[in-house]
Amino acid sequence: MRTPLRRLLSLLLLATASAALLGLYPYRQALLPVADDLPTARQRLADHLSLYTPAGDGPFPTVLVFHGCSGQSPGFVDNVRDWLLPQGYALLFVDSFGARDIRDWHPVCDGKRLWGNERALDVYAALDLARAMPKVDRQRLALLGYSHGGWTVLDALAYDGAAGHGFPAAGDGALDGVRGAIAFYPYCGFPAHLRQGVAHSAPVLMFLGTADRITDPRQCLSAMEGLSPERLQVVQYAGAGHVFDQRSDLNTYQPGLAEDAHRQAQAFLQETLGTAP
Questions:
Q1: 29 near 113, Cβ under 8 Å?
Q2: CA distances from 227 to 154, 193, 206, 261 (A)
Q3: Of 52, 39, 33, 140, which is closest to residue 94 (Cα–Cα)?
Q4: Is 16 exposed, middle or buried (0-12, 13-18, 19+ CB in 10 A)?
Q5: Does residue 247 surpass a pLDDT of 60?
Q6: CA 194/CA 119 separation, integer angstroms
Q7: Second label for 38, Cα 20 to 30 Å away, from 97, 130, 162, 196?
Q8: CA 272/CA 141 separation, integer angstroms
Q9: Between β-strands 90-94 and 60-66, what pairing exists: parallel, antiparallel or unpaired?
């Protein structure tokens, strides 16, 4: 009797393991990304950076902007430029999808391709490239990420140049010059590395909507609860959904909340980067 029972249990275990593997198969690109490194990432991103500067010669304090999982649309760029460029900061938009020839954003939003912990390498590469730009003040840099881009920025701070998901260590100076980071409604669930702690000391300003059904704000509150008030400011908007700060297909735009968030973000940048020239 024992032998048939053992065979049955073995078959059940094999069936369970096979089902689990089949369930993970659609996520293979995200789970097992192609090995990457900083020089390759710099080369990939070089033609996919867009720098906007105020009038004048500079160098200007600069905000590096990372789009969400639906990509870097012209409307997204215009929105950020409209509220931030007049404040005197240069803006460097980082098109992670263009750099990888990603034309269908759905697999990224579904978690089947390019997790934020893999994309964190783009932050280090973009910073490297930005520091070589004459109009960029390499000592006064900030990171701004939206949704998937917020996850990307926070994981870059969490790794702080150490080896990450699919890439080797970028080095101790990977975040040199970064004085602050802003994350709008970021993803903070598994497998975000930020859940293990944020190693870099730059202060973070995070905007969350309590009615967000795309990213769970409770995961961010839980993941970041170990940071002191000096390192983390959290602004929660009651009843706000995902992408509350700009027009989108989600129809969650709330102009009053957007204006308030932009005002607080501008104050944060003035405090961390100093007054723009």
A1: yes
A2: 13, 15, 12, 21
A3: 52
A4: exposed
A5: yes
A6: 13
A7: 196
A8: 9
A9: parallel
Find, among 110, 41, 45, 97, the residue nearest to 71 by Cα: 97
Q: Name the pTM for this structure.
A: 0.92
Closest CA to 177 of 142, 212, 226: 142
List residues bridging with 182 in a β-sheet. 144, 205
Burial class of residue 233 in the structure, from the number of CB atoms within 10 Å of its CB (0-12 exposed, 13-18 middle, 19+ buried):
middle
Q: Which CATH number fits domain 36-273: 2.60.120.10, 3.20.20.70, 3.40.630.10, 3.40.50.1820?
A: 3.40.50.1820
The pLDDT of residue 27:
87
Pairwise CA distance, residues 63 & 130, whole Å: 10
Give the residue carrying structure tokens 């970041």.
224
DSSP-derived secondary structure for 70-101: T---HHHHHHHHHHHGGGT-EEEEE-HHHHHT
